[in-house]
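@channel sequence for tomorrow's demo:
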Amino acid sequence: MELNKCKGFNDLTGNDMTRFRCVEDIFRLCGEEWGYEEIRTPALEYLHLFTQAGTLTPGMLRRAYSFLDWDGWTGSRVVMRPDSTIPAVRHYINEYSEGVARFIYSTPIYVFDVNENKNRERLQFGAELIGKGGVVADSELINMAADVLQRLGREDVQIKLSHAGLIRRSLEEMGLSPKEREDVFNAILNDKKDIIQTIINDGQAYKKLQTLLSVGGSSSAYVKNLVAALGQDLGNADEVKDLANLCDILSAIGVNYEVDFTIGKGFEYYTGMMFRVYVAGQNVGGGGRYDKLIPTLGGDNTPAAGFALYVDYLMGYVDSEEIAATAAPTVLVNVNALAAKDCFDIAAQLREDGFNAVIGDEDECCTAGDYECCCSCRSGYDHCVCCGDDGVFTIVDSGSLEQTTAVCVEEVIEILAGKYEQS
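structure tokens (generated this afternoon):
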């Protein structure tokens, strides 16, 4: 009989967790080396934190898991975290209020999807740089995201850049109404560009928008030429200078990138640069600048930006066999009731010396001498230690079935240590 899981939610097996921990360790080490500190926020947050001043698009809010959290008779509506940035910002407002903070975190987000084959619990590794504005901070985050993937052995990383502020400014210059601008911007963020033509009534404005969304390039000159092609008076706009300067920095430090205003998958709170991270054409993460989010939630005017990487994809870049090959040796110590103390002492000393030591019992022991048939020696352990009723320990190599005997705890440890010093 199989017990059903909730649709869109998955178990992680031991092998999955090995790969997850490997990726998490790489991400955490990278964050520490870049000067970021790890935080953790709750799975439940008040819904108003996300609805306040439209911090998430209506489409995203409709897919949030929300319910009443009864507290006496004054229940408040809460939500299972649909986004990881807003809780991190809440944490900053409560604990820091001002100054520069660099956060990293490993966390799941919860998003309902009608497609039952898609995950509704999505693991993310994220980073937030709060209190620093400008293109240097933007390039720091983009470069750090690429660094994580390169440490996972991926050289085929591409960054696709967009700019929320430039898109909004361009829509305004096209003469669109406030509602049209908002609807078009949301359509771009939600990757629903096919409905834009039904939103815009002005054919000339639609043609200009198609120009913005139809071509890509990888230089500051491309950005300036694109703005000129739109026929808009944006040449000296801060948004244009911002994106062009970011392109210059990324080119200088060797980041593989392309400017592409069609990347979608953004948040309504983005105000500046937005980016997506691709590996071999697969989108594995993204981020952006959200300078207005902190004051929207009640904090001071504070620049901020961040990104998240999708763990499911990153785990696929880890070879479990390579991890196993570099893991510490694992020894099965079968405990004979007559020599229990010695057996537990052996296991404790092995762990202290860097081995993995698993406790077995005398039913698994090789005391009968038939080591070739002993299942313990065929169960993925590197060595097996058994104690006979005569107090003599037998050390069995699980691969070759070579046997070595010892008469005391110290001798067992010496023999095992010697085998791995030789190798």
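heads up for whoever presents: The chain has two domains: 14-320, 328-422.
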